[in-house]
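Team,

Forwarding the record for the chain on the shared tracking sheet. I've put the sequence and predicted structure together so nobody has to dig through attachments.
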Amino acid sequence: MVYVSPPAAGEQSAFLSALLIVSLSASRSCFGSRGVALFLSTVTLLLFSSGAAAASVTVEALLPNTAVLMINGQRKTLRAGDDFDGVKLISADASIAVLEINGSRQRVGLNRNITTNYVAPERRELQIPRNDRMQYVTSGSINGRSVQVMVDTGANVVALNTRHAEALGLNYKDGIPSTLETASGVVDAWLLNLERVEVGGIPVEGVRATVVVGEYPSIILLGMSYLQHVELRERGGVLSLSREW
């Protein structure tokens, strides 16, 4: 629970003082044959402004461009652009809704707190041109050490060979022994977690990786254990990686 002192007399009316109560819970089910993922959350905001009545908003369900909201005790299904009783739905997907309440925009996401002092999320983006081998190769870092990586959406995890691991100072043999099937046959490997992987200023911590015995892969593969945390877009031979905080 966060208490914000009311503004002093004479301050601009656009400044909101608020008592904010946030509780988030989530569950997942499917809608229809298309199996649309449904996330249920409960977010209760009590917003007060000078001379304005309190607005109570509860987010009950999120779908692409649609949200089911309980607004001042009335359940309403809003689509992007719709508004009711001072609450407007700007956009929504299966995990995040952007609401405009009394002129103030808030991003409502699972397991994220909402503060009364709204700050626009930081967005970072990296653009990687495709090389003449039809690959997307860029620089990055693993545990603070510089590396070259190739984006590979077909790899479940970040993959590197033993030479890479030794150069990075990884104690990979402390990981979980495993095997990996390659074009040359079945080879030994170890599964471990990398403390931090950063590409284009977009860091992700606790990234699952596999270290493969031998020279495969010749370049570190940036697999889905990292890529699942970023937004991917490809256009005209340029791959964009982006993320908001």
